[in-house]
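Anyone up for a design puzzle?
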């Protein structure tokens, strides 16, 4: 078949246009460093590139999560370690106070240092992160976890643990709630806890609650009590008075006893003192407990240390205090080990995630990246042909 002159020139122009487009595309490839200029160049490869880029983005997020978790757990571990240091120092002071050669004044000075350490401890258990969130408050990160209420420290957070995903199939807790960590410490002796159940118009608050007769208190443990203040006209002549009943069944144990705000209320081995003016109907809840918090335990040690008589009583006080502090240290050691184990998990996961990311990048490079030597050679050939 013969080609006419017009057809010959038409085919030549088409070929030159194709060569020109190929040269332009090759120049764009060299400029971008990528083999594919559009999805239509290789739809299968383009889809795979999109998948790999998504996987890389997810891997990057996991690594940022690991960094966040590492920072948080490192702060938790450091805070617990600092609490351990404070408790260790308090333990040394308790041992020192047992020296029979010390005077009462010297023991008061030791108690003052323990109070100072307790203030330091209060700051530590209320630690915050860089964003101002409380690290030992569970989910309630905006709520100070430990506050003094009714003469004792109470926990205001919850038991929640914040969890963050660090791999496709792995998540890790990045918090340790203060409940169970700084509370629920087994006590050597049963103790007492008191709180008010007063209407908003009342100024009554518990200022102190303690076991004043351990044997008598233990004999009735774990009974809880309700103290209720009565109308002043319930006694003659009119005066402030109260009644006590069992919490378990409401049985009345004491009726219309005169209230002395200086001496407080003593019953079945406990003594509770309050400040403010009680109104008729105001109530105090007295609970027997065999577990305590770090703050309350150390506060009690500082309070009772100067008033212990020499001899067997002081020896028993020192032994009980050391037992309680040992229980605290055991719990802190376990918590710090838990934080350390999580940090080790993060390090292992980070290494695996970096290896996975490197694999994604290598596959992506094989599919997407341009072979510069080949592209430059092709461009030279196309340019020469066009000339």
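Challenge accepted. My sequence:
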């Amino acid at each position: 078949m013969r080609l006419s002159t017009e057809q010959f020139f038409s085919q030549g122009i088409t070929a030159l246009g194709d060569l020109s487009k190929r040269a332009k595309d090759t120049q764009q490839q060299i400029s971008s460093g990528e083999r594919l200029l559009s999805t239509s160049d290789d739809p299968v490869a383009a889809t795979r590139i999109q998948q790999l880029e998504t996987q890389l983005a997810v891997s990057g997020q996991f690594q940022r999560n690991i960094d966040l978790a590492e920072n948080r757990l490192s702060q938790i571990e450091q805070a617990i370690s600092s609490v351990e240091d404070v408790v260790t120092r308090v333990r040394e002071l308790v041992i020192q106070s047992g020296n029979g050669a010390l005077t009462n004044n010297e023991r008061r000075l030791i108690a003052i240092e323990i109070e100072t350490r307790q203030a330091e401890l209060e700051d530590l258990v209320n630690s915050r992160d860089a964003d101002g969130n409380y690290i030992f408050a569970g989910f309630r990160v905006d709520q100070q976890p430990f506050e003094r209420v009714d003469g004792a420290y109470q926990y205001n957070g919850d038991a929640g643990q914040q969890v963050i995903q660090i791999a496709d199939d792995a998540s890790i807790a990045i918090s340790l709630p203060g409940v169970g960590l700084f509370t629920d410490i087994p006590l050597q002796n049963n103790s007492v806890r008191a709180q008010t159940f007063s209407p908003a118009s009342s100024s009554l608050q518990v200022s102190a609650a303690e076991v004043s007769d351990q044997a008598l208190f233990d004999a009735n443990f774990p009974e809880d009590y309700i103290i209720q203040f009565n109308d002043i006209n319930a006694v003659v002549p009119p005066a402030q008075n109260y009644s006590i009943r069992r919490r378990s069944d409401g049985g009345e144990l004491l009726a219309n006893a005169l209230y002395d705000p200086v001496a407080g209320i003593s019953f079945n081995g406990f003594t509770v003192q309050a400040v403010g003016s009680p109104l008729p109907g105001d109530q105090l809840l007295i609970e027997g407990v065999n577990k305590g918090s770090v703050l309350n335990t150390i506060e009690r040690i500082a309070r009772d240390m100067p008033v212990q008589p020499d001899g067997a009583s002081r020896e028993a006080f020192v032994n009980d205090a050391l037992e309680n502090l040992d229980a605290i240290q055991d719990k802190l050691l376990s918590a710090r080990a838990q934080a350390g184990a999580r940090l080790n998990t993060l390090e292992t996961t980070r290494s695996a995630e970096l290896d996975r990311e490197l694999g994604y990048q290598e596959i992506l490079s094989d599919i997407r990246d341009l072979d510069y030597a080949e592209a430059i050679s092709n461009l030279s050939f196309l340019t020469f042909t066009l000339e």
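A detail worth pointing out: Residues 34-184+293-369 form a domain with the f41 fragment of flagellin, N-terminal domain fold (CATH 1.20.1330.10).
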